[in-house]
Amino acid sequence: MRNVLAASAVAAVGAVLLAAPASAATVVVSNVTDLSNAIKNATAGTVIQVRAGTYYPTATLQSTANGTSSAPVTLTAYGSEVVKISGSSLPSGSWIFKLTADYWNVSNITFQDSPDSAVVCQSCTGTNWNNIKTINGGDSGFTLTGADTINNTVKNIDSYGHYDAAEHGENADGIAVKYGSGTGNLITGARLYNNSDDGIDLWSFSSPVTIEHTWSFGNGKNRWSDSAFAGDGNGYKLGGDGETVAHVVNNSAAWDNAGNGFTENSNKGAIVINRTTAYANGSWGYYFATGAAKLGKNLAVSNGSGLVNKGSSVTSSGNNWDSGISTPSFISTNATTTYNARSSSGTLPATTFLTTGSSTIGATMN
Ligand SMILES: [Ca+2]
Ligand SMILES: [Ca+2]
Q: Which N-terminal residues, if any, form the signal peptide (predicted)?
């Protein structure tokens, strides 16, 4: 019996190896049942292409199947077609899309109207998210969470209009990288706005996250007529829950948020912030009262509480609050163009808003 089992095992291994090329098929789907099954049944190398339309799953789309670095799983729109996945037929409390998996590439899909979080990647390694949108959900738009959250890239995401009614807006962020750990995670080219809580929140994440070329604006305002509204409204909430971690923010901007533009949120680590701009936020442009942040070449203008609140452990040089540094004029303070469509490649729309032409200070807004 043992020999038979052993022989079967060898045969099974052989079959898997032989079957690998066939399983790397391209699957084209055009209805929600096929979409759900394709995600559920994906294996390394599977390419799922979704035809144009709005899809209404009745259960969370999810997978625990890993791709590999050389044979990732791909989930993308077919050609240049417009694909939306709506959570409006899901049970309350549901997410639209949950991955607990490694090496997936997800691109060119909108996830909208989720009852709860829209997209959650839990303990994911090596996932790439390109040109996706998370819109108008009932909790955070896009979430990375859990141990072994490693080497994930979120590129050119739009995440806006999220609001958690049950907690009066206290939790719904544009992007949440929270409750977890793992290095090599990058957010680039994000546009995070009009969410009830923060633009991006790194609460209780114990490894450095890098953020660049990102705009965070209009968060934390009561747009839902909630009489007990509790959103915080920080553009970049860079810590919390006792973690000491050196997150990095480069060439990014925060404006018109209800709270601070950029805040350590009690993180005492050596957070690095360079060439960013904070304009017309409700509280401080930069709030780093207790930690050891390194602030360089940042530009703060017209924030409600002031330019910067920095403690004695903060390193500060070349910012417009440092002595001898002048404040360049903005070419435009009209934000209208920041809502425009992205370029065909997915980069942020061209704008002169908050640009100065300076090569030494502030965000370049691209
Ligand atoms: Ca909050
Ligand atoms: Ca938050």
A: 1-24
Strands 142-146 and 119-122, by their bridges, are parallel
Residue 346 maps to a domain: no
CATH of the domain at 121: 2.160.20.10
With respect to residue 70, please indicate whether it lies within any of the assigned structural domains: no
**Secondary structure (H, E, C), 323-358:** CCCCCCCCCECCCHHHHCCCCCCCCCCCCCECCCCC
Calculate how far, in angstroms, residue 73's C-alpha sits from the geometric centre of ligand 1. Answer: 34
Structural domain including 305 reads 117-339
Three-state DSSP at 166 gives helix
Q: How far is the CA of 164 from the centre of ligand 1 (A)?
A: 10
Return the ligand number nearest the Cα of 173.
Answer: 2
Whether pTM exceeds 0.85: yes
pLDDT at 24: 61
The reply to whether 76 falls in a domain is: no
| pLDDT recorded at residue 143 | 99
Q: Which ligand is nearest to the CA of 140?
A: 2
Percent share of the chain, pLDDT over 70:
93
pLDDT by residue (tens digit) across 229-284?
Answer: 999 999 999 999 999 999 999 999 999 999 999 999 999 999 999 999 999 999 99
- Counting ligands in written order, the one closest to the CA of 263 is 2
Centroid of ligand 2 to alpha carbon of 12 (angstroms): 48
318 C-alpha to ligand 2 centroid (Å) = 29
In this structure, is residue 41 part of a structural domain?
no
**Structural domain count, the chain:** 1
Cβ(175)–Cβ(201) under 8 Å?
yes
133 is catalytic: no
Catalytic residue among 84, 155, 178, 237: 237
